[in-house]
Write a structure and sequence with these properties.
Layout: H1 3-6, H2 20-41, H3 46-54, H4 58-85, H5 92-106, H6 115-127, H7 130-155, E1 162-163, E2 166-167, H8 168-185, H9 190-198, H10 203-221, H11 223-250, H12 257-271, H13 282-292, H14 298-328
Antiparallel strand pairs: 1-2
Helix pairs in contact: 2-13, 3-14, 4-5, 4-7, 4-11, 5-6, 5-14, 6-7, 7-8, 7-10, 7-11, 7-12, 9-10, 11-12, 12-13, 13-14
Length: 334
Amino acid sequence: MNDAVENTEVKPEADYKPGRRSFWGLCLRILICVGILWFVFSRVDLSEVYQLLKGINVWAFLLALLLFFIATFLFTIRWGIILRNLQININLKTLISLQFIGLFFNLFLPTSAGGDVIKAYYLSNISRKRGMSYLSIFLDRYIGLISAIIFAAIASLSVRLEINGFTIYYWILLIFIVSILLSVLLATNFARRINKLLGTRLKTVQGIISMINESSKTILKNPKVVVWTFLLSAGYLLLLVAINYIFIISIGQSIDLKDLFVFLPVIALLTSIPISINGLGLREGAYIYLFSTIGFTNSESLSISLLNFVLFLISGLPGALFYLLSSRKGKHIL
C-alpha cells in the first residue's frame, strides 16, 4: 500500500460543506425517488398492502429484527478484520457505534450504502489515516458484493427463471465473470494505464479505479482475510435470507430459498445505484419485478419490501442515539 494512501491528511469537519452541485444533486435524487415510488404505488392495491401488513405477527417481526441486529454484528466483525489487516486497530465498541451511525445516515443519503461515507469520515478522525479509512469501507463493500454475486451464481444454477426471455442464471454468471475479470485486471498495472488515459477529466472514475486497485491487491496479499470475510459474508446473507423468509411466511406466501439467494444480491446491487435516497423506489421496484416472476402479486411483493424498509428504519434509531450522545460530549464518536 503506498504512503500517499496511508498518510492522507484528515480535514476538519468544517471543511466539508455541501456545494450548490450537491444541493441540486440531492433535489434530483428526491425527484427520482418520488417518481419511482409514484410509479410503483400507482400499480399496487394499497388496501391489500395494508391488510397484509396489518396481519403481520409481531413476534415474527421482532425475530426478524433480532436477526438483522445479529447480521449487523457480523457485518461489523468483517469490517474489523479488514481494518486490522490495514493496520488500523479500533475497539469493537467504537466499531459498533460507527456501524449504527452509518445505518442511521443510510436512511436519507444516496444509495443503500450512503452512510458508509459518514463511517469512513469518523473513522479517519479516530485513526488519523483518512485514505486507509475510506479504503477499508470500499474493501468491505467490495468483498460483500463479490461474495453475494458468488452465492447468487451458485443458487441460480438450479433456478429456472427468465427475464426478458433470458435465463437469469446467465445474467448472474455474466455479472460474476465481469466482476472477477475487473478485479484481476485492476489489481495490476492495467489500472494505472487506464487512469493515465483518463487524465484529469474523470476524477471520480479515477478514484474508483484506484480504490479497486488497492482493494484487490490487499485481498490477494492475505488469503486468511479473504476466507474469514467470505464466511462472515455468507453468514450475513443467510440471515438476510432468513429475515425475508419470515416476512414471506408472515403474509401467507411461500418461496424456494434458492430464489431468495438469487433475488437479494440483485436487489442489493440495484439499490446501490446512486440515483435515489437510501435506494427508495429502486428497492420496491426490484422486489415487485423479481418476485412477480415466481407468482407473487404486486401487493405481496411491495409488502415484503416495506417490511424490510421498516426494519432498516428501526435499526437506524440506535445510530441516531450514538450520534447525539457523541455530539453532546463534544466528540466525533463514542
